[in-house]
Design a protein that fits this description.
By secondary structure, the protein is an alpha+beta fold. It is about 45% helix and about 25% strand. Strand 4 and strand 5 form a beta hairpin. The longest helix has about 40 residues.
Length: about 180
């Protein structure tokens, strides 16, 4: 009954429960966005309920509705991030993803293995400081070339491994749109 009341009424108001008691109901949102009702039992009649109590319940309802919207949006965002991470991990190549400010925002296990690096040391760090110098120079040159031509680039480069051996690594770069 309380949830139905919230959908039927657009503004907070007291409603009688019995002699000298009422509940104050306030809808969580408006119209189609109404998520339900916040209700508080008041030890006063409908006519003698102070307006400040009605306003307090309305404030709680507004803040609760805002929190619910935030959590719903956050859940959607987290779901997309999980999808992104899953795609990155499933690729059988080493992947490094950089933000526009040159921070590492993602890499996969294959990248960690290939370059003997740890994701925890890379994430949120500027790639120029997080990667070994030769790899950082190669990535920087590829980024500059990619941005200048606005196209995908493929290149091979030598990379010195921690044990002293040198391997040839193929690189591809692409500009990803979005956040």
């Amino acid at each position: 009954a309380i949830l139905a009341w919230g959908r039927a009424h657009g503004t907070p108001r007291p409603s009688p429960v019995g002699a000298r008691r009422c509940w104050i109901g306030a809808p969580l949102g408006r119209g189609e966005r109404n998520e339900g009702t916040v209700a508080a039992l008041e030890e006063a009649s409908e006519e003698t309920t102070p307006s400040v109590r009605i306003e307090a319940v309305a404030l709680v309802a507004r803040e609760t509705a805002r929190a619910l919207r935030y959590l719903r949006d956050r859940r959607r965002s987290v779901g997309l991030r999980d999808l992104f991470d899953g795609v990155i991990e499933s690729v059988p190549h080493g992947i490094l993803v950089l933000a526009p400010d040159d921070r590492v925002v993602a890499c996969n296990r294959n990248f960690e293995f290939l370059f003997a690096l740890r994701r925890i040391d890379l994430l949120d760090a500027d790639y120029r400081r997080a990667l070994p110098a030769d790899l950082a120079r190669t990535v920087g040159a590829l980024i500059a070339s990619t941005l200048a031509g606005q196209e995908i680039l493929d290149q091979e480069a030598a990379h010195a491994m921690p044990d002293g051996t040198t391997i040839t690594v193929g690189f591809s770069t692409a500009i990803l749109q979005g956040e």
